[in-house]
Write a structure and sequence with these properties.
With 359 residues, the protein is an alpha/beta fold. The protein is 49% helix and 9% strand. The chain has 3 domains: 60 residues, no CATH class; 192 residues, Rossmann fold, CATH 3.40.50; 83 residues, Helicase, Ruva Protein, domain 3, CATH 1.10.8.60. The protein has 15 helices and 9 strands. The strands form 3 sheets. Strands 2-3-6-1-7 form a 5-stranded parallel beta sheet, with helices on both faces. The radius of gyration is 26 Å and the shape is elongated.
Amino acid sequence: MSADDAIFTEVVRLQEKTKNSPLPPDLREKALSMLDRLGRMAKFGGYSAEYEQVSHYIDWITNLPWNKRSEDVLDLEHAKEVLDKHHYGLEHIKERILEYLSVLKLRREKGEKDTQEKEVMKFMRAPILCFIGLVGTGKTTIAYSIAEAMGRKFVRVPFGGMGDPLDLRGQSRVRPDAEVGQIIKALRRAQTKNPVVLLDEVDRVTEEGRASIMGVLVELLDPEQNMAFSDHFIDYPFDLSEVLFIATANNTTHIATAVLDRLEPMQMPSYTDEEKITIGKDYVLPKTMEESGLEKGTIKIDDNVWPKIVRPLGFDSGVRTLERTINGICRKVAKLVVEKRGTSFHLTTENIKEFLPNY
């Protein structure tokens, strides 16, 4: 089989794939006309340098979740259980999330009873939460918990060091090395059109690209505009109105006023030593022991030892240092278990220095 015949066969396969995919009708028509043109070039012996570009485009549009959505879990008891399982304290933030789920549940029930309401209100607009706080205060992990509580897929878009708005919006196919933007990539990874999308560290974009990236964010987060978000590569509006966006930032200094206007800022508090002791005992230690392969009960820590574990280096607003310290303790215990120097270890004020990591 010649190269032209191979391309023609591949064009036929792509045409079948396009016809069988749940694409919007006018996008399907546009894709099929591109393939027809490619087919004619192959049929008459014209090798097409466009083949890779067209097949790449078809691969993207046929793998996007145009109509696929996950079913929301709107059970407040389940949501509260998930949030409490992963996070200690943060009551006002948990309450805000439960309020949002309550509104979503009532609007859905109303829509099911009233068909006219269902038509008018396809989707209940979500507030765009923005968690603001210092490192280690749980901004990213609470976004995971919201997705789990709602039964939605979760995807993260990192903004740290982003300097080009095309990273978000995609590049035109005129460029030979054109790429899809991060937002559309996130939807393909989620494979649903209503995931939870975490816009992580939106204040960490580069100084040069800040103004233009903030401009794209305004469109992305505005409910009147994101119903038809246009990625330059896809070149067709995609409805993002069902996406639950969550943003995080260390502070609001570098976030444009227009973007802040579309966000609902929620301050993540720093933890006190007493709260860290509870988090260490009930959350971090059991999880780290399991991850380290240690049996339950292998490590017993006296209550008067916890202040030394919580603050080995002075004050830390989050729990990152606490996690590293407990991780170090578990590694040392794991080594002792493997060396058969014991099966359970009791940490006291006398021996704690043997187990603490050497900073």
